[in-house]
Amino acid sequence: MTSSDMRRLERRASLLKSLAHPARLLIIEMLEASPRCAGELTEAIGSDKTTVSKHLAVLKRAGLVKDHKRGTYSEYSLVCGCVTHFIDCIESGAGKGAAESDCTAVSLKPEP
Questions:
Q1: What pLDDT is attached to residue 70?
Q2: Whole-number Cα distances in Å, 5 to 11, 12, 27, 93, 105
Q3: Partners of 69 in the beta sheet?
Q4: Do 37 and 76 meet the contact criterion of CB atoms below 8 Å apart?
Q5: Cα(41)–Cα(98) distance, rounded to whole angstroms?
Q6: Dihedral, CA of residue 32, residue 29, residue 106 and residue 110, to nearest 10
Q7: pLDDT value for 73
Q8: Per-residue confidence of the chain (112 residues) as pLDDT tens digits?
Q9: Do strands 36-37 and 65-70 pair parallel, antiparallel, or not at all (unpaired)?
Q10: Gap between the Cα atoms of 13 and 27, Å rounded
Q11: Chain-centre distance of CA 92, in angstroms?
């Protein structure tokens, strides 16, 4: 494995780690439906503002979420709307053999 491969794989691992929390997955699902303010996300998650803010910061650092200032609050939206499709695809193939899976996901392998 080259150092370039290792950096690429480490970036991907970091991206996947950023999704590895139920509250962050809920945020992603909600933002897929429409942009939301932090208050809406906080209410849906049932946690305090500080915790939700930390979850949003993780998702922003990973490049999955962006924010737009709207007066006195920020509105959050997804950078890429395929995250839940990707997760659904993995779930549909989990426990199935390659021939049985109906997933039509794009390959994550780098171009030669």
A1: 81
A2: 10, 11, 30, 26, 21
A3: 74
A4: yes
A5: 37
A6: 100
A7: 85
A8: 899 999 999 999 999 999 999 999 999 999 999 999 999 999 999 999 999 999 999 999 999 999 999 888 899 999 988 888 888 888 888 766 555 555 554 545 455 4
A9: unpaired
A10: 20
A11: 18
Residues 18/24, Cβ–Cβ less than 8 Å: yes
What pLDDT does 103 receive? 58
Tokens of 55: 């979850």
Question: Exposed, middle or buried by CB within 10 Å (0-12, 13-18, 19+), for 19?
Answer: middle
pTM, two decimals, is 0.79
DSSP assignment letter at 79 = S
**Third-level CATH fold of 3-80:** Arc Repressor Mutant, subunit A (1.10.10)
Token pair of 52 as six digits: 């939700």
Position 83 scores a pLDDT of 87
The alpha carbon of 81 is separated from its chain's Cα centroid by a whole number of angstroms, namely 9
d(C-alpha 45, C-alpha 49), whole Å: 10
